[in-house]
Design a protein that fits this description.
It is flat and about 60 Å long. The protein is mainly α. The longest helix has 30 residues. It is built from three helices and no strands. The mean pLDDT is 87. Helix content is 78%, strand content 0%.
Amino acid sequence: MKRLAIYVITLIIGTAGLIGVEAWSRLITAKDGPARAFILSDRFWPTVAGGAALSVAAAIGMALLLLHIPSRSGRMPERGE
């Protein structure tokens, strides 16, 4: 039951976020000509893909960093743990 509540809350927050982004994008493209021109240009999707790749690379780097930080307790893991 607790997992179901977490799934429902996550879906609600995600849906609200998507609706908010959609409303914000309509507002910015209606009022800002250069932004509209950039979105319609050939540079838009490579920029989005580059930003996504950079975000994924940063997340992987942080995960690897966490794997290599020694334990603060000083306890060394035994083989097989």
